Amino acid sequence: MTRPLPAGSQTSVVLSSLMNPADANFMGNIHGGVIMKLIDEAAGTCAFQFCRTRVVTAAIDRIDFHYPVEIGNLITLKANLNYSGTSSVEVGVRVEAEDLRTGVITHCASAYVVFVALGDDGRPIPVPALVPQTDEQKRWFRDAEARRAKRLAERRRPQE
């Protein structure tokens, strides 16, 4: 008999996608917007599996593009839950591009995406507590707490 995994038990997702000509600009590189969409999908899937409820993108803390992705590359998005608060979670995403001809894998982008969990009425609801296990997960959690504090401080600043 199969049993569903409980909320809060899944903290990572890996998605892959082959980059096609329709994804590229006139220079033959994949549009940044295509990569951003895939980042949001991987992060959203990770957040949804952790919360086991509807989640919406609340913020993209940052996206860093390191190297271009080319037509024919297989990109792999590795999403990991970094932090859970009261009703929100942060997911980090690492994007790697594999040149299928050579097998060379390049870290081409990274991002931090924040999601809010919503109930049936569309209002924020509590999320499961994330309990980091490894030293790496504990570092991700601390770093995410610092990013959250910075976001909250920026929100409190008066608008100019």
Topology:
Elements: E1 12-18, H1 32-51, E2 55-65, E3 74-84, E4 88-98, E5 105-117, H2 135-156
Antiparallel strand pairs: 1-3, 2-5, 3-4, 4-5
What does this structure look like?
This protein is an alpha+beta fold and 160 residues long. The chain has a single domain, classed as Hotdog Thioesterase (Thiol Ester Dehydrase, Chain A), CATH 3.10.129.10. It has helices at residues 32-51, 135-156; strands spanning 12-18, 55-65, 74-84, 88-98, 105-117. The chain has a five-stranded antiparallel β-sheet. Strand 3 (74-84) and strand 4 (88-98) form a beta hairpin. The protein is globular.
- Name the beta content range: 25-35%
CATH superfamily: Hotdog Thioesterase
User: Are there runs of 5+ residues with pLDDT below 50, and where?
Assistant: none
CATH class: Alpha Beta
Helix content: 25-40%
How does CATH name the architecture?
Roll
Along the chain, the helix and strand elements come as EHEEEEH
Number of domains: 1
Provide the spatial order of strands within the biggest beta sheet: 1-3-4-5-2
Tell me the span between the first and last alpha carbons.
59 Å
Overall 3D geometry?
Answer: globular
Whole-angstrom Rg: 17 Å
Secondary structure tally: strands: 5
On the 0 to 100 scale, the average pLDDT is 93
Reported by name, the CATH topology is: Thiol Ester Dehydrase, Chain A
Describe the main β-sheet briefly: 5 strands, antiparallel
Number of helices: 2
Structural class: alpha+beta
